[in-house]
């Protein structure tokens, strides 16, 4: 039995381990290893097989092997580089060890007649298969050296931290755990039984010290039962933590907004179209949430052009009608301005006061806006994240709408919610994303939200016809643009760059703009990029929308939200540099009117195989959900969730691309645990997310 005084491993500092002093501690910390538990979850990248000897006669190129034999001679060679060559034979054959760096002590130890055991990679060299710089040991005749009993792990390491050091530490931890039992297994017995999971410690031991006959292929693909066992627990903990965040939010109060509907009716009556069935359904789902005295937390997913803005505005009107304010936040300046212009058209006739704020609004104007907002004069507020600065005070904020949410990072929404809090009452929150998120990913990343899907486009849209054209045929593309513009159509020309640098993007767009002006003197061309003044951007967009400009050269700033139905051609330069979801977003700027639209992907030759595959998907499909699934497969979840930059949503072991298939089962068990064994929730979250707890409250 275990001595009860033993601290659970979660609380054990690394300095409790033999040999861990300040220097080693620093290196471990650099790897993100701060506790003994972190160390246990630091799993090998791959393994070496040192469990058996390979006869020298059976060496193959590229294989890691252990060989043992007698030194048959050694000599310093003076070729291009000086090296020490040691001949080893074992009765089945002869091979060379080659050392480019060696000391004189080494040289004299590696003498003829000595018995040696080496580990290294066999490679073709001048005189047949050789081992370059193998690890080696000179054997004393008297005592035979045992081989390893298990595969040798190779860990993610850092400079100055040797593999042997990490291996020794892990051996020590595993040994300690074996005797103390300080690593309790928190999975319910029923789960372990039904899924045939091995115990936690056994799984960890298996991965740190696998038996020689383990399936390396399973390990490589994350399919080994020991891996699946750990991944499952991690996903479970993640899901439980999101659900707990939701519980916390739901324990707060929010203004119950009666669904009066008078303003909504007037707005809808003024529009030249009717809501789609999907918009209507989602509108009802939202209206019902808003009427409750708990804060709504709802994610609306809908493909580009599915009409999310209108749904958001209808929700805002429900707040206004109840005497509250609503805020609509967009991720970019230009999108915020677009929203402002659109909303102004819709809301001004209803007598609803609209305000706008971004970082670029300064001085007197800013003071006025802030004052009107604080006094409650402004009823619906549009802006960028400037809306959530300290100095911005709402009068009675009841609803926060976050548009194109994925750009804010997954967990930022929580901080927004926090900031919108007033007098113990929280605003309702509506999150809209135009990047459809694969269902399993939704479960991992948005388990704290309710989800609505607008799965229908307004009628009369024609799918965008997408073609791939090599940049060598740029001339033809310019021709096509000229023809389209002459026929009264409008077009976008989008410039992209690998560099994230906005300045460089703008320069590229400027150069293209100059080129096109020269090539197409009869076409009225505009240029828009992120470096322009907000007023200039707004004027330019207005001119394009009004048809005064025929061709708009742009950086990817037009990716989201821009809405000009008469624009029916889009050229995207270097599309191979963008993610599929981003391309889909861009392409969604055309195909908004009734005429047939075209998207020309002007790629750079040569296109890699992966590039061909990716652009091929764009050509074949107009379905944002399908494209998102593919993007997930190809580029991983960070691209879709927008967390790559922020580093949030980090898992220790799970890989959302590889392991998402487990999500439905994880959800099932998580709900069962919440209902039947809630006491397990806390320890599970603590074990897996202790370091990341702050990720709930960024
Ligand atoms: P997204 O979902 O990409 O944000 P928007 O809200 O920008 O889409 O809507 C795209 C365009 O479709 C806008 O011009 C909007 O006015 C229009 N629209 C919205 N709903 C409908 C509808 N039910 N029928 C026709 N057009 C609609
Ligand atoms: Mg939109």
What does this structure look like?
39% of the residues lie in helices and 18% in strands. The chain has 25 helices and 21 strands. The strands form four sheets. A seven-stranded parallel sheet has the order 11-12-10-13-14-9-15, with helices on both faces. The chain has a six-stranded parallel sheet with strand order 16-21-20-17-19-18, with helices on both faces. It has a five-stranded mixed beta barrel with strand order 2-3-4-6-5. It is globular and about 100 Å long. The protein is of the alpha/beta class and 698 residues long. Helix 8 crosses helix 24 and helix 9 packs antiparallel against helix 11 (308-321). The protein has four domains: 9-47 and 155-214, no CATH class; 52-147, Beta Barrel (OB fold (Dihydrolipoamide Acetyltransferase, E2P)); 262-454, Rossmann fold; 465-621, Rossmann fold (3-Layer(aba) Sandwich), CATH 3.40.50. Mean pLDDT is 86; it is low at 1-5, 643-648 and 693-698. Strand 13 (397-403), helix 14 and strand 14 form a beta-alpha-beta unit.
